[in-house]
Write a sequence for this structure.
């Protein structure tokens, strides 16, 4: 698993989780998703694709926007899997993102940074 997809929502308090995953993981591709404010997110020395979406959209509209913007960026086939970080965000945002990834289609493996390092759930 070498593709990391991470959601950044409005509160910067959870951005450290995403930053830590980016710094400590070995990823071939990193995609960070957020609104225009999240464009301010930087990780020293790390390169990632930023996908800007309107997080305030209704659920179905947000899911459709995510599919449209993520599909060309992800290596997807029936055996593909992404590491997904949703430590940041709301339930609606999480539902839209997971639904979009499954529609692309890619498998989803949740990931988090803990005191013991990166874990896959």
């Amino acid at each position: 698993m070498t593709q990391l997809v991470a959601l950044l929502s409005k509160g910067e308090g959870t951005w450290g989780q995403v930053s830590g995953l980016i710094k400590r993981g070995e990823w071939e591709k990193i995609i960070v998703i957020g609104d225009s404010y999240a464009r301010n997110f930087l990780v020293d020395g790390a390169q990632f694709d930023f996908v800007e979406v309107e997080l305030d959209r209704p659920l179905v509209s947000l899911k459709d926007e995510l599919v449209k913007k993520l599909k060309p960026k992800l290596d997807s086939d029936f055996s593909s899997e992404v590491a997904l970080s949703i430590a940041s965000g709301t339930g609606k945002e999480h539902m839209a993102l997971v639904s979009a990834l499954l529609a692309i289609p890619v498998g989803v493996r949740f990931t988090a940074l803990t005191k013991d390092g990166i874990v896959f759930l």
User: Anything to note?
Assistant: The two ends are 13 Å apart (CA to CA). The mean pLDDT is 92.
